[in-house]
Amino acid sequence: MSELWDGRLPRPVIMPLGDGALLVRFGDRLDDSANRAALLLFARLQEDPIHGVLEVVPSLVSVLLRYDFEAISPTRLGGEIALRIGQGALADRPKLQVVHIRFDGPDLSDVATELGLSIPEFILEHNARPLRVLTTGFAPGFIYCGFHPTRLIVPRRTSVRANVPAGSVLFAAGQTAIAATEIPTGWHVIGSTPFRNFLPENDPPTLVHAGDEIRFEEVR
Amino acid sequence: MGVLTHGISASGAMDRSAHAIAGRLAGAAGEAGIELTRAGMDFTVERGGMRLGWAGGAFTVRVNGTVLDWPGGTVVKAGDVVSVTPGPSGNYGYVRFGPELDVPQVMGSQSTSTRARLGGLSGRALTTGDVLEFSYPEGTPEAVVPAGRADGPVRFIWGIHAELFAPRVRQAFVAARFRVTPMMDRMGVRLADEDKVFAGSSILSLVSDPILPGDIQILGDGTPIVLMRDHQPTGGYPRIATVISADFDRFAQLRSGDPVAFVPVSVDHAHQVLRSGHP
Fold it and tell me: Does the record's keyword annotation contain Hydrolase (chain B) (predicted)?
């Protein structure tokens, strides 16, 4: 993260989410700087936890902090968050996870056609560079990674598939997503992977976290 | 620590205070119990015996055909038949046990998440023929006089997208009366917007943020939905308000057809209500 991030975060909005949480939001649109800022704050909160915080949840452009109101007031918590936003950049390098993908999804040829590419060209472009894990969530172990260059952006499907199997690799809106469980989706299904980012008997139950990098490798 | 980041909402009792009261009446040694819906439940004590406690909603409980007080508790022994049937109000009832219910700890919780299919008995609701096992000894029961619940509007804190709603829509939201619809489950409760507060609201496309129980989302068609314990972890619909913790349990017990009005409070006020212990 360090080589791409200069340590100055966009000015966030800190607002209450109910009476037990604060939401720190770095932008109204999903873009690279807002996502990096959210991930960086998340990393700092893990490195330097705040007493009274029960749970920290990173999201695409925001970070949620659930707190114990008897241990810390929201005002004081806001101050502690601001302190951590003001610190210098992290030196850590992102963790790299290789994910094997079989390009066998029902929407693969539609996506390639829409982008004006042959299937082999699309696969080459898709796997050309590692992607950052923008956030996790939505479903157990679900991973959003991005961003693809603008020439690889397609909108979501107009209809939702009731269920796609665990291990489905999904593609839309400049991102590739990996489902760890069976889910409904409006994204294009481009392939499948044996990689499962959710093993409830493990602690933690997920392997890949926001801020990590993923490199897709084709298997046949 | 929480599990939202793994994509799982916290789950747990829909009416936490009733779950706690049932536990104190049972002298529960553990945290787990059974949440009943209006489907009710019958069970037989196969062997051994134990103290039971029950609370939540207004259900009718019979032990070997004799009606007992609700909320309340008793000691049961092998062969006893316990039957719980729905009463005039509420959606969720709780039966807790003196000994500890043997269900696995999954990610630090004994809750069942039917949505993530985790915990309890294979992550599903109980069904006819299931056998529950317990670990003794039992805890110590307490006499509990449940505090009366506040009536009146459900209190809320303005939501993370409140500013995106026009001032007249926010005013109308507070002045209006909504109605609970039959479209309700552990994930969310849809409200009928009879005063058409959100009719014609333009559909907003937002970046997803994490969700918490009590968040009131306005769907694309203007339907308000109050997100409940098994809410989806993130959401991109605008959220106008979040129900305060002290009123969430009461809201969860509202039945389809019940009217509901909302009133804003400050975060400080919500904390004072929680500290006072008299919701």
Answer: yes
